[in-house]
Design goal:
Strand content of chain A: 5-15%
Strand order of the largest sheet of chain A: 4-3-8
Order of helices and strands of chain B: HH
Distance between the termini of chain B: 18 Å
Radius of gyration of chain B: 15 Å
Structural class of chain B: mainly alpha
Helix content of chain A: 55-70%
Oligomer: heterodimer
Order of helices and strands of chain A: HHEEEEEEEEHHHHHHH
Radius of gyration of chain A: 25 Å
Number of helices of chain A: 9
Largest sheet of chain A: 3 strands, antiparallel
Strand content of chain B: under 5%
Largest sheet of chain B: none
Number of domains of chain A: 2
Structural class of chain A: mainly alpha
Shape of chain B: elongated
Helix content of chain B: over 70%
Shape of chain A: globular
Distance between the termini of chain A: 59 Å
Amino acid sequence: MPRKIYFLSLVFILFGAFSIKAQDKKENSTNIGNTKSEIKEYINHHVLDSYDFDLLSYTKADESKVYVGIPLPIILWDGGLVIFSSSNFNHGKSLAQFGEKYYTLYHGKIYKTDSSGKISYDIKQHVLNKAPLDFSITKGVASIIFVSIIMFVLFTNLANSYKKNGMIAKGLGRFFEPIILYVRDEIAIPNIGIKYYKRYMSYLLTLFFFIWFCNMIGLTPLGINVTGNIAVTFCLALLTFIITNVTGKKEYWKHIFWAPGVPLPMKFLLAPIELLGVLIKPFSLMIRLYANISAGHIVMMTLISMIFIFRNWVGSSMSFMLAFFISIIEILVALLQAYIFTILSALYFGFAVEEQDH
Amino acid sequence: MEIPAIVGGGLIVIGVGIGVGGIGRGAMEAIGRQPDAYGKIQTAMLIGIAFVEGIGFAAMFVL
C-alpha cells in the first residue's frame, strides 16, 4: 500500500514539473493579470461553439498565433446557398469572400459586410450589420455527426451479431447488453408501465446513449462540448416535450385541466399551475444537463489553468491532482446525467399514458 | 452599500448543500431500515438530488 502512494505522488509531482517546464519561457513577457484574462478567454472559447475544430494553438517567437486543427465548412443562406471553408476567416482576422459578397466573423458570429470589413453599431453597441441564416457545420455539429455515426455503426453491428449468434451477446455486446437491459427493466418498465413501455424504448435508448457518448467525448482532450451547449439540450428537451404531449392520453389532459378528486374551486386554481408544469418539466431537463456539463468543463479548465497562475511545482502538482480527481468525478457525472435525463423522460411519458386505476 | 452578487452564489451553495445532504441522509436512513429496497431508494434519491441541483443551477444562471 505505501508503495502505491509513493508511486502516485511521484506521478503527480512529475506531471506537475512537466507542466511548469512547458510554460517557463513565457514568464518574462506576460504578467499575472494578463494570464488571468487569457485563461478566461480560453475557457469562454472552449465552452462556446466555434467554426474551427482547433486542437491547440501556440504563439510563435514573432507574436503570431498558430492554430493546429481542422477548418470546417461554413454553410449560409443569403439569397442563395453560400458555402466556403472556415479557414477563409483565418480565426476572425480576415474577411471571407464569396463571389460579390463579403462576410466577417465578429464575436463568434458571422455578419455580412463590404470589402473593407466595416461593422457598424447602434448606441448600445449592438451590431447593425445583417446576419445571414447560418447552417454551418460547427464544432458541435461535427461532434454530433461523429457520435451519430459511432452509434449507428455500433448498434447495427450489435443487432446483427445477435441474429448471427442465436440471441447471445458477444464481444462488445457483453458490455452493452446489461446497460440496455437496465434501461428497459429499471427505467422504462417501472416508470411507464408494462403495457406501453415498448413504443418509448427506442427513444429512451437513443437518448441515453447519445447523451452518455456526448458527455464522454467531452471529457477527451479534443475540446468538444456538445451537451454543455444549451441549444443541444434544448432540442433534446423539446423532443421529450413533443413525445409526452403527442402521446398523452385523455387521462393526462384531464389531470391537467380538471384535476379529479379535489374541490371545485381548487380545480380552477390547479389548472394554470399544472399547465405551467407541462412547460417547466422539459425546461428543467434542459437547464440541468446544460448546467451540469458546462459547469464540469469550466471547473476542469480552471483547475488546469491553476498551473499557469501558481507557476511552482507545488501548485502544479496540486492542480494536476485536483484535475485528475475531478476527471474521475466527471466520468461518473457523464453517466449520471444521461441516466437522470432518461429516467425523468420516462417518468413524464409515464404520466402521459397513466391509466386511471384508483 | 450594495451586496456583491457572489454572496448570492454562496447562499445558493449553502441551500443546495443542505438540500442534497438532507436527501442523502434520508436515503441512508431508509437503506439502513430496509436494506432490500436499496435499488428503489437509490433511484428515488438520485431523482430528488437532480431536482434540487436543477433549482440551484437555475438560480446560478440568474446570478
